[in-house]
Amino acid sequence: MPVRQLPEQVVNRIAAGEVVERPASVVKELVENAIDAGASRIDIFTDGGGRRRIGITDDGGGMTCDDLALAVDRHATSKLDDEDLLRIRTLGFRGEALPSIGAVAKLGITTRHAGEPHAWSLSVEGGEKSGIMPAALSQGTRVEVSDLFYATPARLKFLKTDRTEAEAIREVVRRLAMARPEVAFTLAGEERAPVTWAAALPGAAGRLTRLGDILGADFRASAIEVRAEREGVVVEGFAAAPSLTRANALGQYLFVNGRPVRDKLILGAVRAAYSDYLPRDRHPVVALFVTLDPEGVDANVHPAKTEVRFRNAGLVRALIVHALKEGLAREGKRTAANSDGAAIASFRPSFAPRGNWDWRRSPAYPAGPLSSFDGSAATAFAEPGQAAFDVGAPTADVRFQETPSADLLDRPLGAARTQIHQTYIVSQTRDGLIVVDQHAAHERIVYERLKASLARNGVQRQMLLIPEIVELDEATVERLMARAEELASFGLAIESFGPGAVAVREMPSLLGKTDAASLLRDLAEHMAEWDEALPLERRLMHVAATMACHGSVRAGRILKPEEMNALLREMEDTPNSGQCNHGRPTYVELKLADIEKLFGRR
Fold first, then answer.
1. 218: Cβ–Cβ under 8 A, 6 or more apart, which residues?
2. Of 258, 571, 551, which Cα lies nearest the Cα of 427?
3. For position 337, what pLDDT does the model report?
4. Cα separation, 454 vs 490, whole angstroms
5. What are the backbone angles phi and psi of residue 317, rounded to the nearest 5°?
6. Which residues pair with 453 in a beta bridge?
7. Residue 120 and residue 135: Cα distance in Å, rounded?
8. How many C-beta atoms lie closer than 10 Å to residue 275's C-beta?
9. How does DSSP assign 28-84, residue by residue?
10. Cα separation, 390 vs 450, whole angstroms
């Protein structure tokens, strides 16, 4: 087959296939154009999931008559000052959006520049450009796109339902609105009620306001401000406390120089920063904004500009991890059970009388008029019901002084008062009470000690007088021996003892008396899930977390009052003590005011 030059219309449709994947792609390109034009208000309207109609109106700078004529030609753009593609300061720069849209849909543009006496309009249908006509418009630009993909019917077959396409458009607008809190957005259409995000004030407060409007009040309540800067790279934004998680990573919003992106490097850094706080199947909610010199990032990687490549990727990743870890450590006392009102909601009374319930007709009360109720009836009522109040003896020594010392009451976690079910410590503070999970709390303490010891001079180890032989299957033994050096760094010295056994010669001193067999089995299970690409630091933290779980105070152990208070004081001095290293809360706090509300005193 001979080589031939493709017609211009076919070339435009091929280019459109790279840029215009679905209606949301059209909305993204047109809204980005409006932002680059300096708009302070952008209105988006869609019909039929964007398939039948998309309308974008802005109050930006607009275009002159000559600019409008060039705007729908391929590779014509106003967003490059010169030919330097390494210094991209705008959201769009390829000059392909408008001609690509015009090649597969009916496109109409009406625009007015401040220097023009009136507006001008232009239409493109299937790649055919009309003449420029005078029009009426007070300011900015209005773009109408209708019958999307009518010129390429095959593409229509790959579109999803109107509702799905409308949701994709909503997500695109949400991301752009998060990136530009100073711009007001309105999103309307027959698929949804109109949504308006008013322009926010500049600075972190305005950004949080916009993020709260989009991500919800729960994000605003749990948001932690994060910031780090080094060598001209700035990472800032807000991260949700570990109390707010999602089942997937779709709640992670990332922006580079104001451009919404989906970057594996940044997603990996977020996952690493939260690794000590969340269970494996939960994901954090964050909105991070990376700002750096345009020459330090390549925005020309993907036709739709959804991916970027950093010149110094290691620096960007390290800054993100540092910013998130610093913010989470600063708010480390914020627990998963306290931040969202879940604790109070759990105490709501589940019993509610139905209908016109009359307490006087209850079986516990005698029949007859209320005036005939006497002491004998009260006795008859009290005796059968008294068993409900027989809760047994407390599971700990509770011989405290009647009033705890003032200095203990003023401590963040208060004064220990009792232990219940041999698992939970109840403490009293100046304005409420706290329930502590003794195993989860001590697990975090041991974990942080292991990390600190490893960073300082290695984990102290204790040699066993008689090595403990642990029998395992051959595959598990091989897996453990392959990581023997990493385990030794935590004070766990093992040797192969035949094809199906391991000899444990040394144990970390911090763990005390521990079931070595159970510990090794858990470590082997975790190692089976490790990817070889997993960084050494992450692997070591997995080992430390598993060891901490086995070396902590177990549920079911009776604690003395001084032991309980000592545990509370250690929690106050330990970073990130609000969660154990599996992401579960270590304590629940109930304020006195909340308790009074539960009992109707407020």
1. 244, 340
2. 571
3. 61
4. 7
5. -65, -45
6. none
7. 5
8. 18
9. HHHHHHHHHTT-SEEEEEEEGGGTSEEEEEE-S----HHHHHHHTSTT--SS-SSS-
10. 43
What is the CB neighbour count within 10 angstroms for residue 78? Answer: 17
Long-range contacts for 321-325 (Cβ within 8 Å, ≥24 apart)?
Answer: 321/269, 321/272, 321/273, 322/228, 323/226, 323/227, 323/228, 323/235, 323/236, 323/288, 324/226, 324/239, 324/269, 324/270, 324/273, 324/274, 324/286, 325/273
Cα 564 to Cα 441: distance, rounded to the nearest angstrom: 11
Sequence letter at residue 28:
K
- As a whole number of angstroms, the distance between CA 47 and CA 26 comes to 13
Q: Tokens 């039948």 belong to which residue?
A: 52
Token duo for residue 556? 């079911």
- Tell whether the model's pLDDT for residue 596 goes beyond 90: no
User: Helices (H) and strands (E) in the chain — how many of each?
Assistant: 20, 25
To 5 degrees, how large is the angle CA 101–CA 104–CA 105?
A: 75
Contact assessment for residue 497 and residue 516, using Cβ atoms and an 8 Å cutoff: no
Q: Which helix (H) or strand (E) holds 471?
A: strand 461-471
| Beta strand 286-291 pairing with 252-256 | parallel
Asked whether the predicted pLDDT for residue 123 surpasses 90, the reply is yes
Residue 301: both structure tokens together = 């990687």
Residue type, 31: V
- Residue located via tokens 């091989």: 478
pLDDT (tens digit per residue) in 544-555: 666 666 656 666
> What does the buried/exposed string (b/e) look like for 320-337 if buried means 16 or more CB atoms within 10 Å of the residue's CB?
bbbbbbebbeebbbbbbb
* Closest listed residue to residue 9, CA positions, set 117, 114, 151: 151
Model pLDDT for residues 299-315, shown as the tens digit of each residue = 766 655 667 788 888 89
Residue 358, pLDDT above cutoff 60 = no
Enter the tokens of residue 178: 């998060």
Helix intervals (H) in 347-498: 375-386, 406-409, 438-456, 474-482, 484-488
Dist CA 303 CA 15 (whole Å): 9
**Residues 99, 9: contact at Cβ < 8 Å?**
no
CA 130 from chain centre, in angstroms, equals 48
The answer to whether residues 336 and 583 touch, using CB atoms and an 8 Å cutoff, is yes
Q: How much helix, strand and coil, in percent to the nearest 5, is found in the chain?
A: 40, 25, 40
**For residue 34, what are the CA distances in angstroms to 62, 67, 209?**
9, 15, 22
In angstroms, the CA 520 to CA 483 distance is 12
CB atoms within 10 A of CB 527: 19
Helices (H), 74-203: 97-104, 153-156, 162-179
Q: Which residue has the tokens 């060598």?
A: 231
Domains defined along the chain, listed by start: 8-197 (3.30.565.10), 204-330 (3.30.230.10), 394-602 (3.30.1540.20)
